[in-house]
Amino acid sequence: MNAKIWIVSELYYPEETSTGYLLTGIAEGLAKHFQVCVLCSQPTYSKRGLRSPHTERYNGVSIRRCFGTTFNKDILPSRLMNMATISMSVFINALFRIGKLESVLVVTNPPFLPFLVYLACRLKGAKCLLLIHDVYPEVMIAAGMIRRTSFVAGVLAWLNKCLYRGADRIIVLGRDMAEVTERKLGAPDSKIVIIPNWADVTMVSPCPRGENVMLKELKLQRKFVMQYAGNMGRTHGLEILAQAAQKLAEQKDVHFVFIGSGHKIKWLETKAAEAKLTNVTFVGSRPRNNQNNFLNACDIAIVSFVSGMAGISVPSRMYNIMAAGKPILAVADTNSELAMVIAEEEIGWVVVPGDIDGLVRVIDEARVNPELLREMGKRARKAAEEKYNLNRVIDMYRGLFASL
């Protein structure tokens, strides 16, 4: 294999949003073994407005930031404009810079990007490796953006099937995603490789509850705290959490904390205000370097999805929750990677989307069983250290590229 690897992603350092953070970790880990170059955009998410150097060498990786608009991503037309300009700019740079037999790893976000990068790879004779973070059009269907039977869904399904068939390797984040990918290809395929995301076990670790700064700031030291931290997008099941907060309003010791932002945050805030919920606190997005503080500011962490998300997206947040030694209460399909990890490691509970009574029952049972929570937390931390650490993941990527 040619030792030069290209990582192509809209998001990359200094972007701290999950995709940018994860791709940065992969690139820097591989740079210890290969020559690694990155094509990306200027920051468009958490670091939007920051102008980074057009070219830069950082932690052993050569970075080229391509031109593109950086409008507000939360406004749909602006986001589409960002996707289009960034994807086209990256495509042009790829045509001029990627060489024959070099290897290119491209992530599926934004959805235009992998098609153009795949085309550039074929024109230049390079290897194309597709890293699937979200499965299209299924994620758009689950989010309610398009109907499964629509013309748009049919076209997107056909295009993505062609992309999957053409890629030299397909990297998926979990077993459920591998099954969905196999169905798209029509049969099991040796080109599919499962490489999970990882826990940052050095920056995130269990901390004594009594010393947590956020719990003190919010005056929740004496409460049983359920925490949802992360993106609150269309595919995240926040409706059932609002229902649970209403049902548990009389349980004065139970409190819900929501940390982050996204499409559904305004709806959730409005719902809480209308219901006059005093057992709910909203905290805006916190920087990644504050993770150890806020992930430890709870008794149970919640990861919640709408129905039908199995195999479509694997939540990277669960790994750092595990690193913090927190039990996980998942609202998710039982055949999802999230549900499988929770069951295998015995680190929490899985409630199917829509089962509000089941969710309330789990919370009631958990809050009176602190010893069970401690044991789950210990097992979660151990799994993060032994199975879901960055070095192990980089070794998997290294073996993949060495096999090409």
Strand tally is 14
CATH architecture label name of the largest domain = 3-Layer(aba) Sandwich
Q: In which range does the helix fraction lie?
A: 40-55%
In what range is the share of β-strand residues?
Answer: 15-25%
Any idea what the shape is? globular
As for the CATH topology of the largest domain, it is Rossmann fold
H/E series, N to C? EHEEEHEHEHHEHEHEHEHEHEHEHEHHH
The domain count comes to 2
Number of helices: 15
Q: Report strand order across the widest sheet.
A: 3-4-2-1-5-6-7-8
Q: Could you give the distance between the termini?
A: 6 Å
Q: State the major sheet.
A: 8 strands, mixed
Give me the CATH superfamily of the largest domain. Answer: Glycogen Phosphorylase B
Radius of gyration from the CA trace? 21 Å
Quick structural summary:
With 404 residues, this protein is an alpha/beta fold. It has helices spanning 18-30, 76-97, 113-124, 138-142, 151-166, 175-185, 213-217, 239-247, 265-274, 291-295, 317-323, 337-345, 356-367, 370-386, 390-402; strands at 4-8, 35-41, 55-58, 61-66, 103-107, 127-131, 169-172, 192-194, 224-229, 254-259, 280-283, 300-304, 328-331, 348-351. It has an eight-stranded mixed beta sheet, sandwiched between helices. The chain has a six-stranded parallel beta sheet with strand order 11-10-9-12-13-14, sandwiched between helices.
